[in-house]
Amino acid sequence: MTEPTPNARQRELIEAIEGIHVVDAGAGTGKTFAITRRYANLLSEGYEPDDVLLVTFTNNAATEMKERVVARCDYSMSALRDAPISTFHSFCHDLLLEYGADAPSYLGIDDQITQSTQLLENEVIEADRFRTFLSQFVDAHPEHEAVFRVLNDPTALLELIRELAAKGVFPTVDGWYRDGAAALDGDFGAFEELFAEANAPNEGANGATQSNLRTSLSGFERDRCFLPDAPSEDELREGYPSIDDRWAEEAFVEDREALTEFIHDVYVEYIQFAVRRNYLNFSFLQLFAFVQLCEDHALRESIAFEQVMVDEFQDTSEIQFKLTLLLAGTDNLCVVGDWKQSIYGFQYAAVENIRSFERRLRAYKRELNGEHERVAFPIEEVTTIPLRRNYRSTQSILDLSRHALTVPATGSESVDRTVEDIDGLEAATDRDHSTIAAFTSASEHEAILDRIETIVGNDDYAVDENGDLRTPRYDDIAVLTRTRRFGRELQTTADEFGVPVAYEGGVKLFETDQAILLLAWLRILADEDSRRGWAVVLERAGYTLAEVEQILDEHTYPDAMDAFRDRLAAMESIGAIARQVFERYGFEDAYASSLVALLQDVSDGTTRNLGGMIRFIERSLDAEATHEIDDNPGGDSITVQTIHAAKGLEHPIVIVANINRYSFPPAGGGDDRIRFEDPIGLRQTKLSSTAHGQPHLYDNWRYRVLSACLGRDYDEERRLLYVAMTRAQDHLLFSAGAEPSPLFENLPLEPESVEPDLEESRIDRTEQTRLQVSIPEPDVPAGQSPHALMDDRVFEDRDDGRGIEFGNRVHEFAEQYADGEAVEPASDDERRVRDFIDELEGELHVEEDAYLPVSVGEQEVTISGVIDLLHVTGDRVEIVDYKTDRTRDAETEYRKQLSVYYHVVRQLYPDREIEPSLFYSGKGTVVAIDPLSMESLSDLVKIERESNRSDQGENPTIR
DNA sequence: CACGAGCGTGTAGAG
DNA sequence: CACGCTCGTG
Fold first, then answer.
1. pTM for the complete prediction?
2. Across all strands, nucleotide nearest A343 (CA–C1')
3. Residue ranges of the UvrD-like helicase C-terminal domain (predicted)?
4. CB-contacted nucleotides of strand C (7 Å)
5. Whole-number Å distance, CA A705 to C1' C9?
6. What is the pLDDT of residues A371-430, one digit of tens each?
7. Longest C-alpha distance within chain A, in Å?
């Protein structure tokens, strides 16, 4: 894309090099473009890269900025490599390594930050260390027993520490840093206002009705057990239509000394624990950098930048705002953001940082200048530059998106803001060809896929490309979801129907097939839960449930698997084991390599602590840990991602999906028992007491009242919806299921109820480098392996063969050899296999799983098996099954097996000729097989099932 | 008809 | 824990 000419507002920003500027940069208004141009302009005005701090939200954004700056100025990439263009976290990291050795001393902690201090990025590992810390903490502090008993989830405590750190509340060894203690107490004045608001009478048809507060306190005692000092529901709700004002103070004022002490001790001792063990988490990085900059005046003054720019300011936390002020040596400060796109509240982003920029600026300057002048520059003059010209979407999309910010998120919520209060964006294009539509369906996944099939190739959904409209493709479409789960489900359904999908964003790495198999093998190796491990491994190999059970009961594991286990047992490191497992199963993808890297990292590369590793994986599963994985298969596929992941991106056609009750907004909230909330401060929802003789957890009635006043804020949900909508360039669709969310129903749309009909689109048009096979819905179909179809009488009295063991060895060799491993043939048969493989010129796929759905009457049955070798060339695909038989007696039975593979492979490679064949290793001959039709296979399954019904009972289902 | 009480329900996001 | 539904009452 050629760089456009900046518009008037953008030019104002680019050229405004002095003074404080708040850039209110709406979605798609060329923010990154303007920032990079401004940066380049600063350089051309004589600033050195070292004079200019540019803070970005992610490391990727930092790299992109650098690249774009390089394109605009005389500096090279290498000259800018060390320029301060980075995230807050990396900046703090660098600062601490260089100057922060003594930062802990300002909190009264003796240990130093050293060059070997590591940044601990993995949260599961940190949670692990925190648990270790906590158990020794409890032993050392019997006085905290009562508060500790209240905790249900120890990691929630770590979460609380992170929150306090992000809000600038730090402990010192014997108290709180600066005015941290005040924040913990909360602000009664501010609370009183919330109380009054919640307690104001409502207007009914015949005069005043009870206040929201009074309503929500009905059922005050339901499912609860309070201490005897709690008022009864009748006492509390005595007044009408409002409850008595005295309850504000009664509820707010509470003895929280034990709680505060507990949190203080856990907090400060955990910091000590971390520093002593040479690690810091993201939160402590900022905490120590802040403290160092605060206390070391000489350092602060020497670092102070002449120019500071902060991007995505709406997603900064309180501590980051303050860090910004400490790092700015002059009032040449420029923050860029859009409150409407603030969606990281759960990472403690404070939308007020940008919404109330000037108020916070004044408050923080005053606070930081308490006993020493740290922020010397004047802050009186703040210039706001609004960027309103949108280069992404059509006007109709932009007009609709404003409604997202005013839609009630629940049936009863009233939003005190109207569309007119929202600054609208103005489309740069005159063209408005947008289709804006909404649909609901009881089967939402299918309805979405159905709609996608309608869109692709349909000029009603033509998209703009350099000013011309063209026919839409799959890769023009993005499905954006609030929750990751829905995206993953959709991906599964799409695979099933052959709609090409690329899922982008965080992946729950430990829920992938790769990790599940690895975990299974680790369990087998460590002999912990080994039955579970074997079950997974055997099922994966295509054994039916009944077969698996038999093997498990009799411990008659297939020889090849036994041998493989022994091989793994000899491995030195977890990384080697993982690599070996993935190699065996043919996983050469991004998931596998990320897992190897991660596990290597976790185990410090050397130790082979299987039990520890199993627990790490289990806990990661439990914590639903996600990892960013670059797994874009390329090609023409739709994008599925969460709204969070889509931020900053754009797509020609956007489908905002799963706008359903309990999903968007998501239901519930944390059940953390110790919380820190503005303005009530630190609170516990449960109290431990022996009021009735026995120690017992009681509900805290005060918290119950306080939380009723706080209410729930759905602004962030609306902003998420806004972000989703403003990703769309040409067309914007909304989808919901059987129970749409109020967010969906209250948008000015006319939803259409649809009944998806995907029969016709069930054609596989995917052809990807990685072999992917569709696995049908798990609940209906029954599973079989191709061997079940075969008449095994032909195998019974064969003394010509050399037994299953020999066969397995040859297969094992063939697999390893085709994979390029350095293995030597140990028999004539293996030598013949080697020669055969050497002749093949195309791409080889080894041990591929094949799943074939077959309709038998009403039922869907899945036949699964493992293809020994696929040989793929430009125009054909050869399916090879090795046989060590000396005769061809069993060929009619093998034909059934190969037919199953044939139909699976045919779907994967629709444009190529498929050649199923047997390789007889005894003679080195290849025999082509004429595949059976689907109908014949279906009949075979039917016959096989009828003959088995008597002794098998219900057919087992597999997943 | 209007309001309030009682009850069943389902439970994220990401560096 | 807070939604929305249903049922009971004035």
1. 0.76
2. B13
3. 395-648
4. 1-5
5. 27
6. 999 999 999 999 999 999 999 999 999 999 999 998 888 777 777 788 888 888 999 999
7. 98
